[in-house]
Amino acid sequence: MLTKIGNKILMSSMKNVKRYVNCSDEVQHKIFKNLILHGKNTAFGKQFNFDGIKNTDDFRKTVPISDYDNLKPYIEQIVTHKKQNVLWDTPVRWIAMSSGTTSDKSKYIPVTRESLHKCHYKAGKEMLALYLNSFPKSKILSGKTLVLGGSRQINALGDGIFTGDISAILVSNLPFWADFSRTPDRKTILLSDWEEKLEKLASKSIRSNVTAMAGVPSWLMVLLKYIVQKTGKPIIETWKNFEVFFHGGVSFTPYYEQYKKILPSDNINYWETYNASEGFFGTQYSPENKDLLLLLDCGIYYEFLPVEEWDKENPQTVMLQDIEKGKNYAMIISTNGGLWRYKIGDTVEFTSKSPYLFKITGRTKHFINAFGEEIIIDNAEAALNKACVETGAVIGDYTAAPVYFGENNNGAHEWLVEFEIPPESIEKFTEILDETLKKVNSDYEAKRSYNLSLGMPQVVALPKGTFFNWLKSKGKLGGQNKVPRLCNNRTYVDEIKKQVNEQ
């Protein structure tokens, strides 16, 4: 009975998806008008004359593109001084703390009633609707979904404002009946101590009929290995009805082979999502195609910044209808959480315009360009995947950074890799990594010519547990924290190598 009711609710979400797939421009225009209406009476809206904004061209001329540092003074008015009507015209009661990487500083992202219900929860329903539309015989609603969120507890700031990571905020605001379809209980999900949470997560989920799980691949892999160790039997024997893993937060490419080993069944599905503290932006559209559908009716207005505009003083965005397939863009969002023309930091490439399908290619700040080679995460993971396939290796985690020119050496890239299964030959792995990077990135290939400016990559195999211990030393254990993949300086690489040497 519950499954039938749930399916009917989710199918109504599918109708909405079909509507904006066919009328994307109209839906985005409606979102835009609604956002401007909410912004008019805010401090931000008055500063940038929202009353005078009649169309999207006015908006782009009047409101500057912002990153977190630009919006930080406004957010501090909410967080520190408890002011309202700063960025949004309804009360802000929740502030999501987001590290995004292992940076010591947290970002504070306002979460409004509208962004909770009309973005995060609505997008979650559309994700499930798309999955059930692809698998009409699915029985995931007859069991429980294992949810692994972050590790920041809810804390009161005063004046009715609370902070926590976005997963904690989402769990805290769900209706009570949602607890019946999820494991573990709310109290366990919100535990701040990762190691205590790991034990309780395992103990409670082992006794549940888990049909699905949702979370970041790296941390769920830690949990699954712990469950196997605790039970002494394969996961698919513990959860006989397990069906799908909804994953997001980091690229799934480096983890796919690990999951195929720990969940060795052709009946298990992997469904990608793209959500963050700032909003829920995309979800896999079909089982045959891993590209993501841009969610156009969840309170977010989208613009896209071409690569050639990134460093300009007055960068010019393109509208959704004007994007080009196969081109790299930084995503600019205006949201019902009060973020205005906000550069989230992710780069995307569209593979289809009907419907709007895209893939995440990297980060505007997570790249290596020390020598003009412009390596992005999409390049890195294509090369690592090829090296793994051809050498039988399986990667747990990795990070990479430049090796700078010295008196006796040219530049290079240093890759710190924690292997689940090491390659038989690290030299062969390195050669394939290098050759594949040349094939997928012409700038890298040019810089590698004759070893004149860029030498062979340097791959360093790390002891198992290195990245876990490094994150732990920084107080960054839990689902919202990630190992930075690429960095244009050596801060992370040198920290990790120093820790390994000390141990």
Describe it for me?
Helix content is 38%, strand content 22%. The chain folds into three domains: 17-89 and 294-363, no CATH class; 115-152 and 165-284, Rossmann fold (3-Layer(aba) Sandwich), CATH 3.40.50; 377-502, GMP Synthetase, Chain A, domain 3, CATH 3.30.300. It has 503 residues and is α/β, with parallel strands linked by helices. The protein has an eleven-stranded mixed sheet, sandwiched between helices. The longest helix has 22 residues, at 113-134. The chain has 17 helices and 18 strands. The radius of gyration is 23 Å and the shape is globular. Helix 1 (2-22) packs across helix 6.
Summarize the structure.
The chain is 38% helix and 22% strand. By secondary structure, it is an alpha/beta fold. The chain has an 11-stranded mixed β-sheet, with helices on both faces. A 4-stranded mixed β-sheet has the order 2-1-5-4. Strands 16-17-18 form a 3-stranded mixed β-sheet, with helices on one face.
Secondary structure layout plus pairing:
Blueprint: H1 2-22, H2 24-39, H3 43-47, H4 56-62, H5 68-79, E1 94-98, E2 107-111, H6 113-134, E3 144-147, E4 155-158, E5 161-164, H7 166-173, E6 182-183, H8 186-189, H9 194-206, E7 210-215, H10 217-231, H11 235-238, E8 244-247, H12 256-262, E9 269-276, E10 279-284, E11 292-294, E12 300-306, E13 328-335, E14 342-353, E15 356-363, H13 377-391, E16 394-403, E17 412-421, H14 426-440, H15 442-448, E18 458-461, H16 466-473, H17 491-502
